[in-house]
Amino acid sequence: MNLGRDAVHKETKILMDLAHGLAEAGRFGEAVTVQLEIVDFCRASGAPGSYPLPDSVAWSLLDLAIYLDLDGRTEASLEIEQEILTLQRRTAEAEPRRATGMVIWMAGAALRFLDVGDGLSARDLLREAVAACDQLPAEGGMANFGFHQGVQAALFARSGARDERSEAGRPVPVGVDPGRSRQPVAGRGLHHWAFSVREDYRAGLEAIDQAIADAGAVPHDAAGLGTLLRRRTIRQSVLCHGPRDFADEVIPALASSVDVERRLLGAGRLSRALIDQALGHLVAGANARAVGALREAGQAV
Q1: What are the boundaries of the region Disordered (predicted)?
Q2: What pLDDT, in 10s, does the model give residues 103-132?
Q3: Is the pTM of this model over 0.90?
Q4: Lowest CB count within 10 Å: 134, 145, 165, 241, which one?
């Protein structure tokens, strides 16, 4: 297809909306087929063999990994995950100033490997992330906040998607409208969240807040409280209005989740909470704190 740049962009946007709509309707296999075409478009927009490639390539691959996973094709999804990581490594090598972004992608991928029970891959990634983060200044600033926070929110929300679903034998999660058929996919155009996802996340906040308040200072179900806190913080990340909102709302919430998980004494959950916290620190430019959280997360896996 010989299209001008604007026409290709418009065509890609139409396909992205189609893929997302198919996924929301539960037609995951068809979403994968459409997304593969989007990936081809995005790859073609860069110069073959040269880095960095356009950011749209990584985002299109992330969507593909999500749709493959929803379609039950876990191994194929993880192969795409590895391709994203390779892309991030080559990007950071070509442009060292983008190393923070690479570490964020690595930490988010570690969450994914933990989710599928591959602790070894998660541990290796965390070790690599620590080594890369050690090369960053202790305080990195927030000059690239918008992009870094977009990646953090997408990977954070992906890791919590299962907690938003009503699966066999489990009641509808607090804050989820059972009347909506929408699937908990990202729903983005690049790192801009779809209004439908934002509306759903915002609408569920009041019910989640009430459930957290009802749990009290000494909750009967501490693990359930930990999950509620994480689901709320994911929503805060997706709905974030800027650096101040992130610093005032998201960072303290991530610290609270770590405190709860420490009391539960579950290594897997603690590791996840520490990775969540490290992602937040990286977005906020607190690289030294991110290193500490990533290192402890790797030890807890």
Answers
A1: 162-183
A2: 999 999 999 999 999 999 999 999 999 999
A3: yes
A4: 241
